[in-house]
Amino acid sequence: MTLEFKIPNMACSACVTTIANAVTAIDATAIVEADPKTKQVKIETQQPEATVKQAIAAAGYTVA
Ligand SMILES: [Cu+2]
Question: What is the pTM of this model?
Answer without folding.
Answer: 0.95
